[in-house]
Amino acid sequence: MEKGNHSEVTEFILSGLTDRPELQVPLFGVFLLIYGITLVGNGGMILLIMIDPQLHTPMYFFLSNLFFCDLCYSSTISPKMLLNLLAERKSISYSACIVQMYLSDAFTDVECLLLAVMAYDRYMAICNPLHYTVTMSRQLCKQLVAGVYTGGLVDSMINTFFTFRLSFCSSNIINHFFCDIPPLLVLSCYDTHINEIMMFAFTSCIIVSSLVTVLLSYVYIASTILEIRSTEGRRKAFSTCTFHLTAVVLLFGTLLFMYLRPTSSYSMDTDKVASSFYTLVIPMLNPLIYSLRNTEVKDALRRAINKLLTNS
Q1: Cα(168)–Cα(156) distance, rounded to whole angstroms?
Q2: What is the pLDDT of residue 256?
Q3: How far is CA 81 from CA 26, 119, 167, 178, 225, in A?
Q4: Residue 159 CA from chain centroid, whole number
Q5: Residues of the chain with pLDDT under 70
Q6: In the 8-state DSSP scheme, what is residue 23?
Q7: 267 backbone dihedrals φ, ψ, rounded to 5°
Q8: d(CA 3, CA 194)
Q9: How far apart are CA 178 and CA 159, in angstroms?
Q10: Strand, helix or coil at 93?
Q11: By three-state DSSP, how is residue 174 classified?
């Protein structure tokens, strides 16, 4: 049997979050609610940023891309997972599995890189405020976002190619609720050591480079904030970073736990919980993190509601 011959498998069976039938309907209700909040929250924030001129700044430009990424990310996973929670046969076609893995991996990379770009944006705003508007021009912001998407799509293409050139003949049952690299490698007929090394290398490159950018940016930000004499000035400067720091801790903490380990240490049940957190829960939380205590967003929402009431 040669590598690349996929005649053995034409579809996969996703084991899902749990094999306990009595939990399928309650889980369906919970994740349907999470997906609904994700759609409304991210879609609403994108719309608000688009219609309010005062939010047409580099920070909110990057945020709108983060919300778009979360919207796409969740929509890559949630619909199929919700259908499978109610289905007797939880199947996914071979081609659909490729697409799902490619997109989910790409949006993970894009989110990591976007958070790094947003950290650089906060560094420029706080450490170089006089040059901020010139340096963070609209053109540079678009170039940074284009670079982020290019990096994510290329990295995911490499990971997906090397995963699906393997033959899956031991079984077609994926012990997960979506098509992800580690549970697919378990199904391979061949030694996956090279794939594990490549996955570790490329994933490390994205996560570590993003994390280093974030950490370096915040070292300089903290140094600058400590030099501010007034307590109010320090509080105001730091408050612009708290939302971003929360998002960074949630995403990178989960990803470091998930991927930067050898597959021999994987516990699929634990990984399912962690995966559901960063693929489904974090996309729901991000618009809440950036809006609930953000006075600029609250003011923009108030203006939008007043305008809507006035026009009606």
Answers
A1: 20
A2: 79
A3: 13, 33, 25, 7, 45
A4: 17
A5: 1-8, 170, 259-267, 312
A6: G
A7: -115, 110
A8: 14
A9: 16
A10: strand
A11: strand
Instruction: Outline where the chain has alpha helix (H).
Output: 24-51, 58-86, 94-127, 132-135, 138-164, 181-186, 193-227, 231-259, 268-276, 282-289, 295-311
Distance CA 306, CA 56 (A): 19
Element (DSSP H or E) covering residue 91: strand 91-93
Token readout for 297 is 């967003």
The SS3 assignment for 188 reads: strand
- Read off the pLDDT of residues 23-40 as tens digits, 9 standing for 90 and up: 899 999 999 999 999 999
pTM for the whole structure = 0.90
Per-residue pLDDT reduced to its tens digit, 269-282: 777 888 899 899 99
Closest CA to 175 of 184, 163, 188, 165: 184
Residue 259: per-residue pLDDT: 63
- The CA-atom distances, in angstroms, between 299 and each of 11, 131, 246, 249, 305 are 50, 26, 22, 27, 10
pLDDT of amino acid 263 = 56
Beta carbons of 161 and 81 less than 8 angstroms apart: no
Q: Kindly tell me the burial class for residue 73, based on how many C-beta atoms sit within 10 Å of its own C-beta (0-12, 13-18, 19 or more).
A: buried
Q: Check residue 265 and give its pLDDT.
A: 59
